[in-house]
Amino acid sequence: MYIPFLSKKKEFFTDAEKRQIVDAIQSAERQTSGQVRVFVESRCRFVDPLDRAVEVFASLKMDQTPDHNGVLVYVAIKDRQLALYGDQGIHTKVGDAFWNDKVKLILSHFDKANYAHGLVHIVIEIGEVLGKYYPYDKNAGGANDLPDDIVFGK
Q1: How far from chain centre, in Å, is Cα 87?
Q2: Which of 3, 109, 124, 132 gives a 20 to 30 Å CA spacing to 26?
Q3: Domain boundaries, the chain
Q4: In 3-state terms, what secondary structure has residue 125?
């Protein structure tokens, strides 16, 4: 009989780093009606990480926010790939140049293996721009439509 060796899955972040990233997501979302999610996996199944980000965006139901102002930060750690994907509402406000600049910023952190710090930094900046175009409205209820946790793929 064959029994596969079970080992603990390698963690990408320490518990403290995970908490920092989730705190950044929550802080960003307190400024806006927009939603920010972080999806991290080991390898990207697609040649272009943006294609994978679009797939993940839909699977997380991020395309169902009322103002179409969800943003996904997608990272494939071992493949050293990342993508930022904003739904049409926020994308029409900021355009490709914004996303390209933010990718360069996060890569500067990743090049130094500062993954958690880079994610915290980029989530905060995304929250600021979402807050500019989609400010938090306490009178509208400001529902947090999506979970704030980091989503880990395979």
Answers
A1: 12
A2: 109
A3: 15-136+146-152
A4: helix
